[in-house]
């Protein structure tokens, strides 16, 4: 079982993340953006064993940033008022009329303070976005790294609104606070631009996303389907986006409270399924367990049963562990004692239970491994390589491909930790 140990240059970043994690808005702004940076750094810098194709010229894998052309006229702007953006690589050969969109993750902001902090980062402003990003994993154009989708048109959608592309301007403050809640408008304007440059002719399409981007994928999945040609094959993939409405170790619903704040601050309820919000409190309709009940478009869920972000922010948030009993365990599962492992097993059981109805859907797909990880589709190391995590001999890429092209039904659920020796388990100690 591989344990990914950040090198010395990352130690300072990890310590910085933990420090900000003690603030109320850690989930929203700095905490997760640091995780995203760390994972990006790991995927580029750590000497992990890879297939030769995965270590090919990194320059060839870089894709430039495009700012949304008509965004200002439509009011589709980032938190700070800058233009939202995306990265686009044109498909080729048999993939010329096939499209894969991937929404990046980055948490949420639930208070004015956290959104103001966020707008000074790439998660709230295109001013701070990299002008070029590496396309790897599910976005790779190399057949050895991405066997089923390598030649498709690829779009990486940058995330700068803080509410999974579901905020609404009616909830903006009129008291001089310079924050724009335009996530829904960004989604609509972005989709219109992509339709104009070729998405409208798609024969096949897959909307995907990581973490908060995975949640955005679920929120907008049916709308994506409705905007594309009726004869196109359209499906959705949420990676590490199945956030649980579970109590923390002190018995508090930390994530529930957080989502309530996000919904109230940015008016997210207007983007949620109408059937759900007429029957339930809006916060419940932001949890994927409710979203997938009403989603008509086929969905594939990739999720680690021991998702480190959920363990560190839902099950054992900093405020729930003032004495540091969980300090080492939540950073590396090898340091968990039997009692802690029992708690983690219960958290895994809650995930499996929340997916019980979904498992019965013929058109749905699952890949639930027992890794201490988070997003797994956008890195070659975890998507598809000789050393990628596997369940029953299949990588995530192979499983998604089998599902998308109807080669096999895919309902892969791993045995409990530490049974899977193919896992990359994060080590934050």
Indicate the topology.
Elements: E1 2-4, H1 8-20, H2 30-45, E2 62-67, H3 71-74, E3 85-89, E4 98-103, H4 112-118, E5 132-134, E6 153-157, H5 183-196, E7 204-210, H6 212-227, E8 233-239, H7 254-266, H8 274-279, H9 288-294, E9 299-304, H10 308-315, H11 338-354, H12 356-359, E10 365-369, H13 380-383, H14 396-404, E11 411-413, E12 424-426
Parallel strand pairs: 1-12, 4-6, 4-7, 7-8, 8-9, 9-10, 10-11
Antiparallel strand pairs: 2-3, 2-5, 3-6
Trace the largest sheet across and list its strands: 5-2-3-6-4-7-8-9-10-11
Radius of gyration: 20 Å
Order of helices and strands: EHHEHEEHEEHEHEHHHEHHHEHHEE
- Cα shape: globular
Mean pLDDT: 89
Instruction: Return residue spans where pLDDT drops below 50 for at least 5 consecutive residues.
Output: 4-57
How much β-strand is present in the residues? Answer: 5-15%
Question: How many helices does DSSP assign?
Answer: 14
Main structural class: alpha/beta
Indicate the percent of residues in helices: 25-40%
Total count of strands = 12
Q: Tell me about the largest β-sheet.
A: 10 strands, mixed
Alpha-carbon distance between the two ends: 17 Å
What does this structure look like?
The chain starts with a strand and ends with a strand. The chain has a 10-stranded mixed beta sheet, with helices on both faces. Strands 1-12 form a two-stranded parallel ribbon. The chain has helices spanning 8-20, 30-45, 71-74, 112-118, 183-196, 212-227, 254-266, 274-279, 288-294, 308-315, 338-354, 356-359, 380-383, 396-404, and strands spanning 2-4, 62-67, 85-89, 98-103, 132-134, 153-157, 204-210, 233-239, 299-304, 365-369, 411-413, 424-426. It has 429 residues and is an alpha/beta fold. β7, α6 and β8 form a beta-alpha-beta unit. The longest helix is centred in the last third of the chain and has 17 residues, at 338-354. The radius of gyration is 20 Å and the shape is globular. Belongs to the pectinacetylesterase family. Pfam families: PAE. Keywords: Cell wall, Cell wall biogenesis/degradation, Hydrolase, Membrane, Secreted, Transmembrane, Transmembrane helix.
